[in-house]
C-alpha cells in the first residue's frame, strides 16, 4: 500500500468516526426545533382557546345540509339554546364555546336567519349568533354561493336572486326539516344581513330594487360594489337583464329585520322600493365605511323607509368592522379596522341592541 492509499484510508476512518457525533448534533438540533415548534403551537392554541367566543348561557351548535328550490345542497350553521356544557370548538380562525349537537332547550323559540356578505361564511357573525342564541333564539346561517371558498357566482343571477331564494329555503328547512323544528315559533322570525346580505334580507322582506339602474349608476360612479361587478363581468352591467332576475317574492314569515352596511343600496332609489316593507327595520352603518359609503347605500334605505327604520351608526367603524372579532391573531385583511376602533367592545354594544330589537319585535303573541 503506497503513501496516498494509506492517507486516504486514514481520512475515511476519521470521517466515519466523526459521523456519529455529527448525527448526534443534527438529532439534538432537530429535537430542539421540534420542541420549540410544539411549544409555539401550544402557546398559540392556548391563547386562541382562552379567548374563545363565549355566551352568557349555554349555546348548542351544529352544521347541517339543506337544499335550495332547485335541489342543490348548501351548508347551514345553527346556534340554539341548550342545557349541555359547552366546549371550545375551532371555527376556522377562532374558537367558540358551544355544545356541538347538544340537545335543544325550550319551546316556541324565535328564529333569526343571518345572511353573510360576499366572501363570507356561516361563522362570519358567530358572536352575534352566540348572543342571540344565548338570549333564547334559534339562529340559522346559510353558506351562500358567494362564500370564501368559491365566489364564482358573483357575476351571475345566483348572486342576486339566488341568495334571496336561499334565505327562503333556510327558513323552509328550519320550520319543516330541522330536528328541532317543532320547538320553533313560525310566527316569530327575524333576519339579519350584512353587506350584500343586507340586500338579500331586504329583498326577502319585500323590498323591490331597480336592478336596471345598476349599469347606469356604475358607469357614472366608482364604488367597491361596481368594481366587483366589473371584475366579475356581472350581468347587472348589461343593457338588458335576463328575464326574471328583477323579481323578488316577499317572504311574509319574516317579521323584523336588521341590516348592516348594506350593499347595492343605490338600487333602491325608486319611489316604490319599500312599499312592501311593513315590519320594523334596524339599520347599521360604520361612519368610516369606504367600501359601502353611507350616502349611496344606507342613506338611500334610511330615506326610503322613513319612520319605519331605527338607524344606528358606529363611530370609527369600517366595512369589515361588522365581521366577527378576530381575536389575538389578526392576520387576514378582514381583521383590520380604522384606528381607535375596538371591534370586540363595539360588537358587545351592537349585539345587545340587536338582541333588544328582536326581543321587542318578535314577542310571543
Q: If you average the pLDDT, what whole number results?
A: 88
Instruction: Provide the number of structural domains.
Output: 2
Strand arrangement within the widest β-sheet reads 3-4-1-2-6-5-7-8-9-10
End-to-end C-alpha gap: 107 Å
**CATH fold field value of the largest domain:** Rossmann fold
Low-confidence stretches: 36-49
Number-wise, the strands total: 10
Main sheet record: 10 strands, mixed
- The fourth-level CATH homologous superfamily of the largest domain is Alpha/Beta hydrolase fold, catalytic domain
Number of helices: 8
Q: What is the CATH architecture assignment of the largest domain?
A: 3-Layer(aba) Sandwich
Helix share bin: 25-40%
Oligomer: single chain
Categorize the overall geometry. globular
Strand content: 15-25%
Could you spell the SSE succession in H and E letters?
HEEEEEHEHEHHHEEHEH
Give descriptors for this structure.
10 strands; globular; transmembrane; Dienelactone hydrolase; hydrolase; 8 helices; UCP031982_abhydr; Rossmann fold; 1-alkyl-2-acetylglycerophosphocholine esterase activity; alpha/beta; ten-stranded mixed β-sheet
Task: Provide a brief overview of the structure.
The chain folds into two domains: 1-50; 54-361, Alpha/Beta hydrolase fold, catalytic domain (Rossmann fold, 3-Layer(aba) Sandwich). Helix content is 34%, strand content 19%. It has helices at 3-50, 126-134, 161-176, 196-205, 214-220, 224-231, 298-305, 343-361, and strands at residues 59-67, 73-81, 87-90, 95-100, 109-115, 138-142, 184-194, 254-260, 281-286, 309-314.
